[in-house]
Design a protein that fits this description.
two-stranded antiparallel ribbon; about 250 residues; mainly alpha; about 65% helix
Length: about 250
């Protein structure tokens, strides 16, 4: 059976990809080239960065239901994360990435293969509420707290912050550092929110019609998001370096 393609999901992924590339370009301008953009490290920059990662993760969970080859897709994305780690450790150690967004997304896709059989037995609304509450509970475990932002619900035991496995899960060891860190928890719960949102929203014929709308340029970007993600940072860096040599920066 051929599944209908919901083109607006590709377009939304493409739009988020543009936002991500712009964010990384601004990050390089500020961090490497010393551009005086004070708001970037304040709330506006934080909201920008979070809007990108939240959208990508929610979309990934939502679209997991539409994929024909989840194992192949998960392994491909996870492999992309390993490639990013290897390249940054070898050629950009000051910007090294360990347990970045691709490693997380690939892991989530793979774990979801056996887990979906259990989750499909839950009412979608209960799964969404449960996943959202667990995301709020674990959102700040990287920083040593249960809760989210000003909602501090307790301190995570220090004994959990040991070793690379627990760092991957969400409890980074004291000397851990990565230019892009997305631990399995809390982000898997946001991925699950997208997964359950699919089951809730796609019951409506109106939603399916809206998601079938086309924005072709953004669609193309969204369909090629993995390769663009892998290539965008070297291209951005090359463009900024050329601008610096020309005296533009």
């Amino acid at each position: 059976m051929t599944r209908e393609r919901y083109h607006l999901l590709d377009a939304l992924r493409g739009l988020t990809l543009i936002s991500m590339i712009a964010y990384h370009g601004m990050y390089d301008l500020v961090e490497i080239y010393g551009a005086g953009v004070s708001w970037f490290w304040d709330m506006p920059g934080r909201v920008w960065q979070q809007s990108v990662c939240w959208t990508f993760i929610l979309l990934s969970g939502f679209c997991w239901n539409l994929g024909k080859h989840p194992l192949r897709r998960g392994l491909t994305v996870f492999g992309g994360g390993i490639l990013v780690t290897a390249v940054t450790f070898l050629f950009m150690p000051s910007q090294r990435i360990l347990f970045g967004i691709l490693t997380f997304l690939g892991s989530a896709m793979l774990v979801q293969i056996p887990l979906s059989r259990l989750l499909d037995k839950l009412p979608a609304w209960a799964g969404l509420i449960g996943s959202a509450l667990l995301f709020i509970l674990t959102r700040d475990i990287n920083a040593g707290f249960w809760g989210f932002g000003a909602l501090r619900l307790g301190v995570v035991p220090e004994s959990l912050y040991r070793g690379l496995l627990l760092t991957f899960l969400g409890f980074p060891e004291p000397d851990f550092w990565s230019g892009d860190y997305f631990s399995f928890f809390p982000w898997f719960f946001l991925f699950l929110c997208g997964y359950f949102l699919y089951r809730i929203l796609m019951k409506g014929e109106g939603i399916r019609r809206v998601l079938s709308c086309r924005i072709r340029g953004l669609e193309w970007l969204g369909r090629h998001s993995l390769i663009i993600y892998l290539l965008h940072q070297p291209v951005v860096m090359a463009a900024l370096e050329a601008a610096a040599l020309l005296g533009v920066l």
